[in-house]
Design a protein that fits this description.
The chain is of the alpha+beta class and 464 residues long. Helix content is 56%, strand content 15%. The strands form two sheets. Strands 2, 3, 4, 5, 8 and 9 form a six-stranded mixed sheet that branches. β6 and β7 form a beta hairpin. α3 runs antiparallel to α4 and α7 runs antiparallel to α8.
């Protein structure tokens, strides 16, 4: 007889508990944006099913003795915290002032819950503050019902497309109709089966779950579309970079290019003049991602206008600055340009706010700085040019600040000193092996859990 009386509670509680835990597990495994609402809905369902299930199991003496003493605490906690979990679920669907009101309800519910649990722990009275909790629940439900059922308010305060608003409104109406029916027949001496209450709550919960899943899939479709567009952008950006090193007598050239994201703000270009002379441009756009990549593409276009003056580093930088001036908005661009003439045994170098050129010669490492201001700050800045002789055995390194700025676990930057140490240790290695070793040491410098912190571009040039 006892089992017959409790069978509905056991079944209903088990179903809602299992559904809630399953939803939480699925959300945890997916680990995508938009799954938080599923987690809160799962917890809401699990707590709804846990109370009647625990009550039934206690009645049937199916719980171990050591756990029975904790059931009252669990029930009291669920009693006070259900409104908090429910409002956290709706918070993921809300926007504007409704979001602020829900946050206020959540904080108030937490305060009442903590106080209620404290009173229960000291006095044993589980429902001492339940009146305040019920008032809060009533106000919250009235507010949510008004927003869900009034189309103008739903459009304004819910981040849902029209079809999802209709689904949520339908589930809410079923829940409201069931609650009204239960409260109308009760004064007449009738008592509807407990399953009716479960069906009303299930309608509300399933409508919320449908909306949450649809939102998650819509978010994933948008993310997939963005990833596809970024893949196309990455292919386009790679197509504007040199596809190989220029063939110049007496030079051995290696390039390393490692974007931080799908597209990068670093850019490099080779400007072959003839079999003895070639220009090397390295540029770094502030920021990352698509905005920086668009400006890098602008530099590629601007390079066409300065090819006729490729033998003059000052003219190259001035020409690029004129094209970019007024087009960068809040971003800036640093750049360096190195011209090497193997026939006459000389090199010319100039830069615009860029890290210095490194030159290895006869067992010594030199920093060559010949800097003007970054691109875009003035229409006609001055870019000084450093002219130097070259000889077999010389090595030049052009790089962006992504090489020297990565930080280790203590927050120490890789720095110019570490870069120079790697160059000294690998002075006898070919350019390609030096570049590989440098990238390896940068990766080891950063914590294993840290992703690449900036775009990296490195050009190593040996005079042979």
């Amino acid at each position: 007889m006892v089992l017959r009386d409790q069978i509905v509670a056991v079944i209903v509680g088990t179903v809602f508990l299992f559904m809630g835990l399953a939803v939480c597990g699925i959300a945890a495994m997916r680990r995508r944006s938009g799954t938080r609402v599923l987690i809160w809905l799962g917890l809401w369902s699990a707590t709804y099913g846990l109370r009647p299930l625990l009550k039934a199991l206690v009645t049937l003496n199916l719980l171990p003795g050591w756990f029975r003493g904790s059931v009252l605490y669990v029930n009291t906690l669920i009693l006070y915290m259900t409104v908090v979990v429910a409002m956290l679920a709706f918070l993921e669907l809300a926007t504007g002032k409704l979001r602020l009101l829900l946050q206020a309800v959540i904080l108030t519910g937490l305060a009442i819950g903590v106080a209620g649990m404290g009173v229960f722990a000291f006095t044993g009275a589980a429902d001492r503050l339940i009146l305040y909790n019920e008032i809060l629940v009533t106000c919250a439900l009235f507010m949510l019902l008004s927003v869900v059922l009034v189309p103008e308010l739903a459009r304004k305060y819910l981040v849902l497309p029209p079809h999802n608003r209709r689904v949520l409104a339908t589930g809410t109406l079923i829940f409201l109709a069931e609650a009204l029916l239960v409260n109308l027949v009760r004064p007449l001496g009738y008592r509807l089966p407990a399953a009716w209450d479960a069906l009303g709550f299930a309608a509300l919960l399933l409508s919320c779950g449908y909306v949450a899943v649809d939102m998650m899939f819509a978010s994933e479709r948008r993310l997939l579309s963005i990833e596809n567009e970024l893949a196309i952008a990455r292919d386009i950006q790679r197509s504007i970079l040199p596809c190989g090193s220029p063939q110049v007598r007496s030079l051995r050239i290696t390039t390393a290019y490692r974007p931080m994201t799908a597209v990068a703000g670093d850019f490099y270009e080779f400007v072959p003049i003839d079999q003895f002379r070639v220009g090397f441009l390295v540029a770094d756009v502030s920021g990352h991602g698509v905005p920086a990549a668009l400006i890098a593409a602008m530099i590629k276009v601007a390079m066409r206008s300065v090819v006729p003056c490729a033998q003059d580093p000052r003219a190259v930088l001035l020409g690029l600055n004129r094209v970019l001036y007024g087009q960068l908005h809040d971003q800036f661009v640093t750049a360096s340009y190195l011209l090497i003439d193997t026939e006459n045994g000389k090199a010319m170098y100039s830069a615009a706010g860029h890290p210095p050129l490194l030159r290895w010669r006869r067992g010594r490492l030199q920093r060559i700085e010949s800097n003007g201001i970054v691109f875009g700050l003035a229409p006609d800045p001055e870019y000084p040019v450093c002219e130097m002789s070259i000889a077999p055995g010389d090595r030049f390194l052009l790089f962006t600040d992504g090489v020297i700025e990565p930080e280790n676990a203590r927050g120490d930057a890789f720095g110019a000193w570490k870069l120079e140490e790697v160059v000294r240790r690998n002075q006898s290695q070919p350019p390609a092996e030096l570049a590989d070793q440098l990238l390896s040491e940068i990766g080891q410098w950063q914590p294993s859990s840290t992703t690449q912190q900036d775009d990296i571009t490195l050009i190593v040039i040996d005079v042979v």
